[in-house]
Design goal:
Elements lengths: L17 H22 L4 H4 L2 H10 L6 E5 L5 H9 L34 H15 L10 E6 L6 H11 L5 E7 L10 H10 L4 H13 L5 H10 L1 H8 L3 H4 L4 E7 L3 H12 L4 E7 L7 H4 L27 H15 L3 E5 L9 H6 L4 E3 L4 H13 L3 E7 H4 L3 H9 L6 E5 L16 H5 L6 E3 L4 H12 L6 E4 L13 E3 L2 E5 L6 E5 L4 H13 L4 E5 L2 E3 L3 H8 L4 E8 L4 H10 L7 E6 L9 H7 L4 H14 L14
Parallel strand pairs: 1-2, 2-3, 3-5, 4-5, 6-7, 6-8, 8-9, 9-11, 10-11, 14-15, 14-17, 17-18
Antiparallel strand pairs: 10-16, 12-13, 13-15
Amino acid sequence: MSILDGISTPLDLKNLTREQLDQLALEIRAFLVDRVARTGGHLGPNLGVVELSIALHRVFDSPRDVILWDTGHQAYVHKILTGRGPMFDTLRQRGGLSGYPSRAESVHDVIENSHASTSLSYADGIAKALSLDGTLGGEVGRHVVAIIGDGALTGGMSWEALNNIAAEDRPLIIVVNDNERSYSPTIGGLAHHLSTLRTTKGYERFLSWGRRLLKRTPMVGEPVYDALHGMKKGLKDVVAPQGLFEDLGLKYVGPIDGHDEAEVEHALRRASTFMGPVIVHVITEKGRGYAPAELDDADRFHGVGIIDPDTGRPLANKGVTWTGIFSDELCAIGARNDRIVAITAAMAGPTGLADFGEQFPDRFFDVGIAEQHAVTSAAGLAFAGRHPVVAVYATFLNRAFDQVVMDVALHKAGVTFVLDRAGVTGDDGPSHNGMWDIAMLSIVPGIHIAAPRDEDTLRETLREAVAIDDAPTVVRFPKGSVAKPIPALAQRDGVDVLRLADQADVLVVAVGSMAPVGLAVADRLEAQGITVEVLDPRWLLPLNPTLVASCLAAKRVVTLEDGLRRSGMGSALRDAMATQHSLVPVWSFGLPEEFLDQASRAELMTKHGLTAQEISRQVVEWVSADVQVTEVPQDSQPR
């Protein structure tokens, strides 16, 4: 039986020999490659924290000691060591193992953070509460350990937390997992500082050498050593300039080789005896032990789909993706217009900005995992005459909402936000669905929001967006492959007509990627003798007066969107029609106000009634009943 087969709880690690621990690390890496190759997931980050995870669970007693992972995609090994290895065949599948910490899965998962830079604030609050209870630290008390890395320390929230943690003499252990990368190489001053620490000899090692040398010097050796030890802070700044942390009032241990389990374990045991906050700086290698990941300079296999475990090559052809079309068009726009600049928050590859960065390096800015800074910096670029394109996953724009409102919209700054993974994304779980963007942004004064339905409309709306210099613009699109081209049969002042019908029984307004569903609904309804017209607004906000007029002239209106029903496109149309005292009923099909389960996009769309079959069934019943109301009650919305 393998060593790994005998691990079902962290207690099983305690009595393993050094040789067994080395063998366990090898087995875990092989297990990760085999299982993640089948389902997809975050492979590179977890290959880099194998020894660190083992050491954490040998030194600390989870869940009594609180272990917090930031970002949560580094927690696969933690899951294995806490008894969830047998579940890895279901990783990121419906009803299966989450790709992030999950409180529903295990008492060892304390927080469900899959947005970066949050763990230190959680740790600060937990440590304060345990201190008030009298159970924090000391020989018999509980420990709080936050593991932060993979670029997360570049986020401003981390530094807000560090500022507060350092102000209190409260035991708290911060493990900096320094792998030089987030998705790609980590950017910024902090990254340079950590790089300096990486490439110098540690203070303790230097002092140990100095002590051995001076002890052999008669008479003067001991006094000189004592003087050097008394100059500890200054000497550290010369030998290993960790003053950045110590100036904050944080003790510093490291840098430590994160793949030497014994050395990591020793450092953690030392840290656990300190009475105040301490940084343990651990150097790891993303993708460690798997040649295809180690050779991948782009992101070290940060996140992979289904791959051949022997070669690392993808087994599924993604086809033409929304991200790829955006990348190509932005490069074309940038070649024609040197006012265009691009900003990423540590995700140049995933958001499609890598090619722009290669072609126009002087006009490309990676700010690290710092969405708030990205947005306000973009406003500054706009003030100074450039037109910034900020590309982020839709879910991550949530983190910079205040900056969108107060720093961009209030100042009428011409900034274009490109939101990848908008709507339902699915397999990354509830935190990564981009379902809040339309509802959230719809209240921002003066904003323009576009939802393209195919390749041509993505290119068109992007060109139109960057031409607007007196207001923020948004172009949103989903994850995955682009739908087949859907040509407009006609256009009414910017509104695309996808299906024409005189005196239609139902007017369908399909938002963006819901256009194919809208046309399929029309086919099904017309088979039942119900005439349908289908419109695509392209630009959702500001509301097109022609779209509103079309709805006012309709018998019934159905809106289809992959965002929240509340405060979405349907809500905006109802509000606009109400000002005209309209009695035209409007039924909005969209997502409920709840966190969606982990599942594929198709599974979630089916569950929440956003399929052509379910929508058409309910609309047939609606038309047959000839209900004349101004709004379908919320409790009758599809589930």
